[in-house]
Amino acid sequence: MSLCPPGWLKTPMGNSYAGQLRTTRFEEVLHNSIEASLRSNIVVPRPIFSQLYLEAEQPLAAHNSRAENDDEDEEDGSESNSPPILYQIKPPPEGCCTTDGFCQAGRDLRLSSLASDPLDVLPGFMLVGLKPPSLPDSLLVCAVDHRFLPDERGHNALLGFSGNCMGCGEKGFRYFTDFANHINLKLSTQPKKQKHLKYHLHRNNQGVLVKGAAICWRGHDGRIRQIGPRLLEGHVTSDEQSSNLLLLQPSHTPANYTASHTNGSPQIADTPHPLTNGHNAIPPIPQPAMNHSGPGRPSTTGTQTNVGPPKKRHKGWSPESASNVVSENTVKMPPSSSTLSSSTAHSSTTNGARLDAATPMSSSQRSSTTLSPSGLSVAVPDQLLRTCGLQPVIFKGHGPLPRLTGNVSEVLVSSLLQSCYLSSQTLPRVYQHYGPSPIQPLSTEMQILLTVYYLVQLGPDQVPLIEDLEQIFMRSWRESHLSEIRQNQQPQAPGSQGRHYGIETPPTLPGLPQHLSLPYQQPLTPSQLPWLAQLAASSCGVGVVVFGEHVGSLAQGLQLMFCKLLEGGFQNTNYVVVIVTASGQETQSCVVVTGKHQCRALAESMFSPSEGLREINHQLSSGETQELIQFCNSLGQDGDMDSLLDSATLDSNEPSPLSSSQESTDDKSVKKTHSPKDSHSPKERVLATKETCTEYSVEWREVRPIQLAVARKLLSHVCAIADSSTQNLDLVSFDRVNFLILVPPSEVTFQQTVLHLWSSGVLQELGSLDQACASQRDAERFVVKMDQSAQVQIDSLIQEAHSNSYTLYILIHDHAHWDISSASYCNSESGLGLVDQLLNSRRIRDAPNILILHVTSFPFALQTQFTRISPYNEIHWPSSFSNDVDLYHERTRYFGVSELLDSTRSGGSLPLMRYDSSFESMAASLEERFPKLHSAVIRTTVLIHHYCIALMAVSGRLSGSHNLHKHSSVETLGIVQSLLSAAQQCPTRHGHMVLLRIPSLALAAWAQQRLSRVRRQLGLEEKFEIILGNPGQPLNIGQSFVDQIKIWLKIQEADWVPRTYLELEALPCILILSGAEPLGESLPRSLKYCDLRVISCSYLQRTTLEQELGLAAYLLKAESRSPHNPGPGSDLLESDAEKLSSTDNEEEEAQDNGKNSTPSSNLPVQSSPDIGAKATPSTQNNISPKAPKSTKASTPSPSRAQTQLPAQSTSQAFLYPKPSFHHLSQYQSQTYAQAQQVPSQNHPVSQINFQSYFHQVSHPQLQPPLPPAQSRRHPSKSTSSGSLSPRASSPHLNCSWARGVSRPPSVLLPRSLYDIITANDGSGLPRCTSFLPHMSVAWVSSFRPLLSKMMTCTEQSLYYRQWTVPRPYHMDSSNRTEGRSDNFHPRRLLLSGPPQVGKTGAYLHFLGILSRMLIRLMEVDIYNEEEINLSKDAREDGVQYSPSNVLWPNPEIMKTLSFDYTVHDPKYDDISFVYCPGYKPVSDGNTVRQEDVCLRRRTTRIKLSKYAAFNTYHHCEHCHLYLGFNPRYQIYDSSLHVFTFTHLRLGEEIQLYFIIPKSKEHYFSFNQPGGQVEGMRLPLSTDRSPDSIKSPIFTPTTGRHEHGLFNLYHAMDGVSHLHILVVKEYEMAVYKKYWPNHILLVMPAIFNAAGIGAAHFLIKELSYHNLELERSRRLEGGAPAVDVWPFVILADDSCVMWNAVDLNVHTGPVEHAVSLKQVLQHMEACPDLSHYGLCGMRKWSSRVLTAPNQREPFSRGHLHDFLLLNVDRSQNVQYDQNRFTCHDVDFTLRLHSAGLLVCRFNNFSVMKKQIAIGGYRTFIIKTKMTDVPTSVGPSQYICAPDSKHLFLATPAQLLLEKYLQHTSHKLFPLSTKNYEHPVLSVDCYINLGPEVTVCFVSSRPHSVNICTTGLLFSGLLLCFADTFVTPSFLKNFTFLKGATLCVISEDRSSLRQTVSRLELEEEWRFRLSDEFQTANAKEDRPLFFLTGKHI
Asked: Region 1590-1598: what's the mean pLDDT?
């Protein structure tokens, strides 16, 4: 309980404390107590006033934090954790001086001014330089009491302040705050002396006051400040930090350390669980007591401790909570990795010792890393390696390392630890944005102590990892500055959180006391460091030795170390830490690695990968490995392996023991036993076998749904690039696709890609190959290996791309992470740097038609700060499942690295990924025996030795072979047994593949030779093949095995050989895959074992590890049976008594045993155990330490023949001691002997219960006979385009391959890699994900967060883009310096996905759909409909009015042609027939809604011709100037002009607006330049110009600003023309935006709701008015007025292409595309064109040329869509401005009745594009209540006048037209389907629906009408009848009795007047209920109509 009330927050001395008393008594107690405490000599004094003054604080907990910032000048970290108090500057007294550098009295305080002045300094005071923030280059002079300043060690400074002003002489400033105000130290934060009092000042020899040593406020502050700023400037690039630094490699992870306490370590009660790691447990870190028996001598009598004297209360430090500070937690160690690239990891020799090359450093860094003078040299003893069996590794730490002399070649020196120290003292730039901060880096002492603690908690087999140490430093630093970090994060905007990944606050450090996780709570002094380090080291016995207390220099410590090393004093010591803390000098340190395993691992890690391979080759070629091989060949008492092989029995007449003993009884009944030396070939042997393998089937699949989804994602990204405003990709300009696939220089990968390409059909789809002659060889020219030959092919592609601008070229860079080296850093011989040289060349980058697609499983190296790929252009492979829901309905399920890791954590079965402890034990013992040999040589030799022994043991050809089992491992024996027995179980000898991964080509070749020799001597040549996978060479398969494969795949080609691993499906073989790294080779689904036991553990990058594990990736069937019911088809039902004793149970599925099994449900795929772990103490070695204990309890026995073991409870925990290799081998031999003697039928064993992934299939007897396999050859496991799927199999599958193909392979790893991969980091992710992503990149800072478990692939990409930079030899390292504002290549994509998941198939399908899309972009949907309402009797007379080849119509002949009243346009198939005498409809009309017409009309896809019209999405280089909106061209300015004219019919002025671009003003006349527009300029009729069109083109449009076809540049073939878009007022802005270089005619606002009739009405009236104006202007100029061109063009906005018919005598009429220019110039050239009122052309149809009625080149009838209108002749016939539908039919009828000629040019046709958006046919019916379209029936379109009805917000005319269209069959019942009695419509045509026929007549005098004599009408329609309609006119027509009359008027008054004027009541009967109005409100001016019946 605190004695201080809350709220006392501030001390008088300017320090903030939580719980501060204000009284004078406590202030006095405070000063006296602090001074007495700090003057004390004891190590950890306890303040006597703590209980009275300080309130106990709780230890800091781990909190989430955000991005931090720091200032270059760190604040003192000694304040409390209280929230920051906003500092308010005290206003200066009125009239005082406020100038910077002067005090308030106006006196100068700057050192430059006072340097020579005599200064009066009081006794006990010192001159100090104060650094003001406002004057960074100046120091202010002040005098401070020396008691309040620290000594040279940074200690013994009193809290508070006492100072004097050296300007005005004012004295007695007791508080630094007041002093800061006096000297005008203008600050935004609270003044602190630690932050601003920087330097001591002293007089030099000349008596000048100069700057002296920095004031060491913390003991390390001065040193850090010397190097900190320079590190801040240069650290973040990481090039200087670690590009040449070598790696500390681990062979064990900190998370698996298990065993007992070390004796002799002090034990503390009630400590948390110790961190376990390896074989021996580390006890909790001892906690020294608070009480001490003497200075620096801790005792163990107490439980509280503090590490050092606090000079004031530090953050989180509390005497009451001291016992909680020094404690240990069990959180796992932060994982990380440090890598090194091949091009900078070359070692250099200094004085004979191999030193890692240092990076260029600043001068301050260089001074601390250079070797010391020769006087401090250390002599390296001779014969060090021979005597000790190791090569010590010395890590430079703090201070200069002494120079080594003597036998320096046997010592390795590394500066990596020193670089780690420097980087941890360099605060990241992220802390520099928020102003001053108290954040400071770790002290030297704390770094050393943390290093000791890290080394202590490492296991005996573990190698230190530098990134582990970096994470420890970072977390410790963060814990110490948690409150300051939070303070700095306060101003950060919330929006900035998502863009950058902030550093998360980690939990407390594992294995370290909390007082070390929070180091600044109690500062660590140099005097405390040695004994604390020794105390920490004592917890692990002699594993870590600290030299510190009696060591005066590093040289002395190293000399002592060498002496003890020679004396054998470090036999069990892995690390020696030398610490020098001599008085008067800085702390120095170094670390010497003396553990044999650690020294070997570190030495090998200092090699680059290429150097390591060269070293291996050297050892093999020099014969250094002979002793090792001879040692392995010796089998002790069992003889020599070579001798046993020579004595092997090879009698060809004797059956092989293998073939007889390992066949099951079922197998014996269906196949023969063959001797190993069978004289028959495999082909003959298979043909001779009556039985065939019914389970084998190669099924070629189409593209999987998820691959199709990825291909579409790729396409959408390409379209996004094309749609962007940058216009970096003009997809519309490309008409075809070409491509080139770049693959690594692997022959198998090359052939594999060729196979996928050829089989995908892409080449045929792209037209690259002829379908008839396509072969796999033809596809090879599209795939390029990235070797020296690639230059020619890529150069050829670039040249082709430049010459074919209409072809889009796709460069696919597959396996893109392979070669990312900079071309400038690589020579031509290395083969690296080609990608940079070719793909990053300027020729490719600037080519607008080349797109690059990088494809990789490991994209991390391409995701750096300098990447060329935009994050928006990344495509990540999607997950197939979400919450166990199959998103893509896949038949397969991916099993990759994460699933392998899941198998290690499941308790249901033996993990698919594991290590072989027997192998590891033997390899470790041989590594100690042969210290000079590379570990890869030793491990490969041991592995091949194990395989040879296993072959000898399993073959059964050697007498006493059971004794050989102890010389191999159980894992290897199981692998070999499965390999040999699998083929015996199948009639056609299908088997498995075993993959041996040996990176060294020399070792792989040796391994193949060795295994082949053993196989030959054992007579097993026909049993399995041994294949050497050399990337640079094609596959070499024995002919007998080739014949087998050809029989299985039914291949008839005589010279066919397999070229890919995929084609080895079901071949029993051992594949030795060599090469430094896999190069994208896909493996068949028959892969059962992936043996990675000899891969390198020295280069730990995420890419390196994941691509090795990716070899085992697999595609499984998606179906799975119940996890709790494996089904009756389990392989465990098969009982084979004679099977070899092995733990190979992967071919078996266990029975469901609910008593001892708890199946796991979180693992998607459970594998049955393939190498059984014994349920006995001596065979527990193969169980993963990660597996639950229940797994170990229920592990199966070694064989089904073994005696039954008692079932174990799952709740029981079994911990078995680790067996030795010798004992394990003995037990294996015993179990083998038992297996040969005990029949399994009598002794069933307890088995593991585990989940099965597949559904059980029915018994074979119930299955119908299966058809044979497909005859076409296909690869079996296609990871990209195809796969194998076994057929439905029986519960007892005869074919072992068919059983194994449904399970993923097992993976064997080195123990060290297994421990690393299976461990999790602090975020829960696998530890390998936190490693450096690639050897060619570097971390930006060690202050980076870990990857989060919840990150998506996109977020991971952003993480790497923020936290990694390319090293200088990375191809992207120069990307930032190329001078571009953006570093991203605009046409570069990245496709990433897991290995073997199907990326090849996805991008191949992408090529296909991209090609199809380009074709579709060049194609449009054209209406392709036959003309309707054609009469059968038409043209029966056979009269040809005009010759077919006539060019223009003759007016006299046209007058003789009868006018065709019938509408033939298919879009009008739902309108009323127009009555015509002699015409009989073909069939009765069907009621069709007009809204549905567009949906059901027939269209055809047609490729656009070069004369097509385009929408706004087309922008080629030819029409940029025409469009005028491309940002690369001039933005065209437009001006708005008003044009007004008076229309007599409307009786009012019409005001229109023209928007005229500057470039089009020459088409208009103005009253003055830039003034009022007077009209459009029109040419003369006599003008003839081939480069212009005379007729203005008007295009009315609405809602189609994007999709309207207004780009007529290509259609006009580039000639000059006047094109005007007629738009509504509310759409003016959007049309101007999309078409800035087009003239816009804006209709008045009253027409915003009008239809197409209003637009045509305005166009016609404007054109006639303009014609009159132009004639007037011509008359004024003296020209004849009649010569002005009177024609205009009315064009629909969907006219896309035009065609002309050529008459060919031999082939008949042929139609071809022509330009609109050609059509218009031909029509305008017609000699008698002025005689015609309206001209047009037919609508295109593919069948129109074959129709019999199209023989005439010209005809008279209705015209639509594209009209040439004579506004002069048609001046008295206007379009109906109110019409919405059928306005053109109405206009044509009235034009014909006026006696004007209408001509259709039948030899021309217009193609109309289907545009589903916008247009005048889109009508929306909505109510007045809401703007949302509602479902309103036609009956609601009208209502009774004055009734309460739902009013509609729709124009009245539209409601009337729609009502008449849909209900006229009720309104005119006598007219329904009665063509002979039509409805008489006077002066207008209105659509009354398809069931009603309309007879149009005109009331105008002298009009042309049809003869109606004798015609009885069924109805009369009078619509807005004018004065020409009279009673006498109506009396000319006869009506049926009961005929219906409909009179329509604008209002009720005019309606009655019309009835009265026309005397309608005489012959028609009306009722009051027959009057209606449209459903409009009164203000919307509804229309009224009256109906009546004829009397």
From this structure: 97
| pTM as predicted | 0.67
Q: What 8-state DSSP symbol labels residue 538?
A: G
How far, in whole angstroms, is CA 495 from its chain's centroid?
A: 23
Write out pLDDT tens, residues 1847-1862. Answer: 899 999 999 999 999 9
SS3 644: helix
Q: Which of 18-22, 1247-1251, 1752-1756 has the lowest mean pLDDT?
A: 1247-1251
Tally of CB atoms within 10 A around 1746:
10
Position 1657 scores a pLDDT of 95
Strand pairing class (575-580; 588-593): antiparallel
Tell me: pLDDT of 420 over 50. Answer: yes
For the residues 535-552, what does the mean pLDDT come to?
89
Q: How many whole angstroms separate alpha carbon 994 and alpha carbon 975?
A: 8
> What pLDDT shows up at residue 962?
67
What pLDDT sits at residue 206?
79
Distance of CA 71 to the CA centre of its chain: 35
Dihedrals phi, psi of 854, to nearest 5 degrees: -85, 130
Plot region of 1658 (φ>0 → left; ψ -120 to 50 → alpha; else → beta): alpha
Query: Could you tell me what percentage of the chain is helix, strand and coil, using 3-state DSSP and rounding each to the nearest 5?
Result: 30, 15, 50
Burial call 760-781: b when 16+ CB within 10 Å, e when fewer? bbbbebbebbeeeeeeeebbee
Return the higher-pLDDT residue of 1528 and 1549.
1549
**Secondary structure of residue 1627 in the 3-state scheme:** helix
pLDDT of residue 6: 40
Instruction: Give the CA distances from residue 294 to residues 34, 291, 529, 532, 548, in Å, rounded to whole numbers and listed in that order.
Output: 21, 9, 16, 15, 19
CA distances from 1776 to 1655, 1788, 1793 (A): 10, 11, 15
End-to-end CA distance of the chain: 112
Task: Give the whole-angstrom CA distance, residue 1103 versus residue 858.
Answer: 6
CA distances from 11 to 6, 15, 22, 31 (A): 14, 5, 7, 12
DSSP 1443-1511: -TT-SS--HHHHHHSPP--S---GGGTTSPEEP-TT---SS------GGGHHHH--EEEEE--TT--B-
| Residue 1696, both tokens | 């896309």
Residue 87: count other Cβ atoms within 10 Å of its Cβ: 13
> How many residues does the structure list for the chain?
1991
How far is Cα 266 from Cα 924, in angstroms, rounded to an integer?
A: 32
Residue 1378 has pLDDT above 70, yes or no: no
Kindly state the average pLDDT of the residues 1787-1792. 97
Instruction: With H, G, I as helix, E, B as strand and everything else as coil, classify residue 391.
Output: coil
Report the distance separating Cα 1543 and Cα 1296, nearest Å. Answer: 94
SS3 (DSSP) at 725: coil
* DSSP-assigned states of every residue in 77-142: S-S-SSPPPPP-PPPPPTT----TTB-TTS-B-BHHHHTTS-----TTEEEEEE--TT-TT--EEE
**SS3 per residue for 1103-1168:** HHHHHHHHHHCEEEECCCCCCCCCCCCCHHHCCCCCCCCCCCCCCCCCCCCCCCCCCCCCCCCCCC
Positive or negative, the CA dihedral 302, 307, 309, 310 is negative
- Residue 782 DSSP one-character state: G
Question: How many angstroms separate the CA atoms of 1007 and 1029, rounded?
Answer: 12
**Is it the case that residue 1034 has pLDDT exceeding 90?**
yes
Q: State how far the Cα of 1437 lies from the Cα of 565, in Å rounded to an integer.
A: 123
| CA-wise closest residue to 749 among 407, 507, 1061 | 1061
Strongest mean pLDDT among 306-315, 473-482, 1307-1316, 1473-1482:
1307-1316
- Is the dihedral angle over the CA atoms 219, 222, 225, 227 positive or is it negative? negative
